[in-house]
Amino acid sequence: MKKLIFLLILSSSISSPVFAATQNGPAMMDSQSGSTHATQMMSRDRIQNMTSMMQRMQIMTQDMNRIMDQTASMDQMRIREMSQIMQQLSQAMHTMSQHMKQGNMDKDMMQEMEQNMNKISSMIKNMEHNKK
Amino acid sequence: MKNRHSKRAIFIAVYIMCYGTSISANSMDEYLEVSARYSRGDFGSEQITKQYQLQISYGKFFNDFDFSLSSSYIQLKDELGDDAGFGDVFLRAGTSISNDHTSTNDLYASVEIKFPTADETSGLGTGETNLSGFLSYSHRYNQTSFTLTGGYTITGDSPTQTYEDILIYGVGVSTYFDRWYLYGRLDGQQQMFDTGAAPLELSSGFFYQIKPAEFIKVDGFIGLNDASPDIGFGIGLVHWF
């Protein structure tokens, strides 16, 4: 990289345009390579973030399936309560999916969903504990 | 009542799963970038040279690796004349060794080949192939990443000039919020000859999302010693599909 820069330093007494231009070749190549590298790194970050959020959404969906398996043993009040939380969760996931489709990350929304999931999980745990 | 709530819950879950599937299917993993670049410097001589560059890059991401291909059209201007033509072609491919998207630590290995498509007689390149290898370690803290990079370039020697292979190093930080992605880097490398300083550059830039699949990219750098160009900047558009 920038190898010809030093060649120019060593041979500064030579001043033909071609020679001077040749000195600058590596610098240009660095700039091109560095620019592409920056885009590639941004893209990797972007895809990693999207993948990470998708994985978390997938886990939440699995948790919701698990919760629904428990509905048969719930009383009416708990089912209503759970349904409300699920609706909030669904709305949050819908909003977040819209944001993700536009390429935006919404950390607050993800936290809200996780809080809702924690509420449901603790409710189920309490219910299972009461059964015993 | 109980049955009605259960049905509603099932509907919600199915709805969400469908949404999840549609997001996965629509994920964009290819991009095309067009950018214009300018840099200027005396490169240690008594003569200022200006470089104008129109660059086009393509990149694609797979599950396990990614690659990019870039080329450019270059114009050089100095006090003694102009030269213009196509630059070298760069092919770069990399893979995450840690291969865990959820981890806060990432080790990324990549190789880069410079194909000597530029006309060396016009001073647009060396006319020789270079082969580089890079290893980057990144640590993510919330939405900010810190990166250490090391690399080595095996340079091709021309019939009239022998070049030393080069050790490359750099540190960087990047962060994103809303529609912005910001980054800054300090990059250096070994000198290629016995005399003169080793190039050292400070660069920074940002990407701004203007549409769901389009980003504006603006970046700039300053040379921290005589061996580097004095200053340079670029602006580009990145389109995902």
Account of the protein in words:
The complex is a heterodimer of chains A (132) and B (241). With 132 residues, chain A is mostly helical. Helices cover 85% and strands 0% of the residues of chain A. In chain A, helix 3 (76-101) packs antiparallel against helix 4. The longest helix of chain A has 53 residues, at 17-69. Residues 1-29 of chain A have low confidence and may be disordered. By secondary structure, chain B is mainly beta. Chain B has one helix at 2-25; strands at residues 30-41, 49-61, 65-78, 81-86, 89-96, 105-115, 130-141, 144-154, 166-177, 180-189, 200-211, 214-223, 231-240. Residues 1-6 and 16-26 of chain B have low confidence and may be disordered. The chains are: A mainly alpha (132), B mainly beta (241). At the A-B interface, helix 1, helix 2 and helix 3 of A face helix 1, strand 1, strand 2, strand 3 and strand 5 of B.
